[in-house]
Amino acid sequence: MKDHGFSKFRIKDNTIIICDQCDREYHVCCLKKQNIANLEILPEDDWFCCIECNNINSTLKELVEAGEQMLPPNIGSFMNKKFEEHGLQHNPELEIIRWRLFKGKKASEVTRVWLSGAVNIFHECFEPIVVPSNSSHDLIPNMVYGRKVKDQDFCGMYCAILTANSVAVSAGIIRIFGSEVAELPLVATRPDCQGKGYFQSLFFCIEKLLSHLNVKNLVLPAAHEAESMWRKKFGFENLGPEQLDQYMKSYPMMAFEGTSFLHKPIVQGRFDKLWKLPPKFLVL
Q: Which of the two ends of the chain, N or C, has the fewest CB atoms closer than 10 A to its terminal CB?
């Protein structure tokens, strides 16, 4: 909720309210005119602009609460191939690989340990990410823990972590702006674990999640030296300037110096039949 026209008890027509999933801004008067919502007081809980955002948020919450997830069976043969390329032998019985989604904003003491491991992975692979106005302020921990710092709000970010024998080996930050688009601003794999297919396995799980949520596009800022990898291995393409301009105006996407925006259309429902979903939680 922004502070225009807001009082403790009532909100006015010029009040701007922000969807707690897609981060899009709405004037209260426009919501009323478009028959989306008739708000007279500040919502006590999270507020969502549509049923799609509500459903996405609920599914993400359930997945976070469900804890670690098994990888799909077909990932095993892929991992074996990657290990063979390095002259190694991969034994699924000796190396237990799992993945898990974390919400840093609501992390417990236990889950904060895992998030700390993700921060370490990012710092092993990247220099601190700073803003020009404050070169001592590293954005990486704020993104991982979903913090709000001054005019930058990372509360909607989730951290996906892949583990091998209960050790974090690969991580990615993801933020889902409703059903229209999601961003993957930061990914990394421990230097001693690179080239073994760990991140490709994690990306497969992230892509499956987005497909299940019916998200249309995935966008990321790619370093110039990594563009070819994203295109060849993961099927990304350049994002056109008009579409990029529309996204940047509508959503608070992350943009880093020395990167170009790439995108990948997500085939909706493509992976729904790969695994059986348990009664309560989404398994990926």
A: N
**Report field, pTM of the whole predicted structure over 0.90:** no
Helix (H) or strand (E) holding 141: helix 139-144
Residue pair 152/84 in contact by the 8 Å Cβ criterion: no
Residues 55 and 216: their CA atoms lie apart, in Å, by 15
User: What are the pLDDT tens digits along the chain (284 aa)?
Assistant: 444 444 444 666 667 788 889 988 877 776 666 666 666 667 777 888 889 999 999 999 999 999 999 887 766 666 666 666 656 655 554 568 899 999 987 788 889 999 999 999 999 999 988 876 666 679 999 999 999 887 788 999 999 999 999 999 999 999 999 999 999 999 999 999 998 889 999 999 999 999 999 999 999 999 999 999 999 999 999 999 999 999 999 999 999 988 999 999 998 765 543 334 444 444 44
The phi, psi pair for 200, rounded to 5°, reads -60, -35
Nearest to 171 by CA among 163, 182, 160: 160
DSSP code at position 193? G
Are the C-beta atoms of 161 and 114 separated by less than 8 Å? Answer: yes
Token pair, residue 244, equals 């990029």
Instruction: Tell me if residue 175 falls in helix, strand or coil.
Output: strand
Residues 6+ apart with CB under 8 A from 73: none
CA angle 114, 116, 121 (to 5 degrees): 95
Q: Three-state SS for 134?
A: strand
Residue pair 37/27 in contact (Cβ under 8 Å)? The answer is: no
The Cα angle at residue 254 between residues 211 and 120, in degrees rounded to 5: 85
Helix (H) or strand (E) holding 161: strand 158-164
Task: Quote the DSSP letter at residue 131.
Answer: B
